[in-house]
Amino acid sequence: GGSIRSIMQGTAALIVVGGTAGAVLVSFTLHDVTVAMRSLRSIFVDTYAPVEDTIREIVRLATKARRQGIISLEDELSEKTDIFLRKSLAHAVDGAKPATLRDLMELEIVHQEEHDEAPARVFEAAGGYSPTMGILGAVLGLIQVMEHLNEPEQIGGGIAIAFVATVYGVGAANLIFLPIGNKLKRKIKMQAQTKEMILTGALGIVSGLNPFIIEEKLRAYVHTPRKETEA
């Protein structure tokens, strides 16, 4: 029986949005905030190649390396769209030992994952500040109400308006900021897992494993056995 206009309050929105933005800008650099804003597109759009395509490409390269030697992959490095796969194969072609290759690429995975989590941390911080700003707006509104205690007819409406800021703060945190942060962290985790799969394939190529064995090891990361996929 309510009306949407009962929660439309510009001052409350200004306190919550402005206060949260200010707290975030103080906590993070402008570059971090800019990157976080740009990352919003990745929430709804996947910019990475499907895992199945990556598996097929690695198996194809493993077959070629097994037949013609790992040096034969050098001509294909410039054609690889996945930068991590390109780097892994470049080290393999250069003669890197499996242990050295693993150390190099695992270090890159860790640092890249830490770098990519910066946007998620920005939105998680906003999700923490937003409810506090809502409470601050509510308190400010109640102060205004207290100044008009001699006007009983205005007290009810004034209190309702004061608590709109709390609705904005809690709603923005739990419906926008925190879900966005969780989604970004989930996508970062999936990207790190894909890189681990690529590294496993590159190590298999360097070790000279049978392409079918390499494929089975790669599919363990996506839980899709090769026979079921082919069927």
What does this structure look like?
Helix content is 77%, strand content 0%. The protein contains ten helices and no strands. The chain starts with 9 loop residues before the first helix and ends with a helix. It is mostly helical. The longest helix is centred in the last third of the chain and has 56 residues, at 152-207. It has helices spanning 10-27, 30-38, 41-44, 51-68, 83-93, 98-116, 118-146, 152-207, 211-219, 226-230.
Question: Notable features of this structure?
Answer:
231 residues, mainly alpha, disordered C terminus, rod-shaped
Q: Main β-sheet: number of strands, strand sense, barrel status?
A: none
What's the rounded overall pLDDT mean? 84
- Helix percent band: over 70%
Q: Tell me the series of helices and strands, N- to C-terminal.
A: HHHHHHHHHH
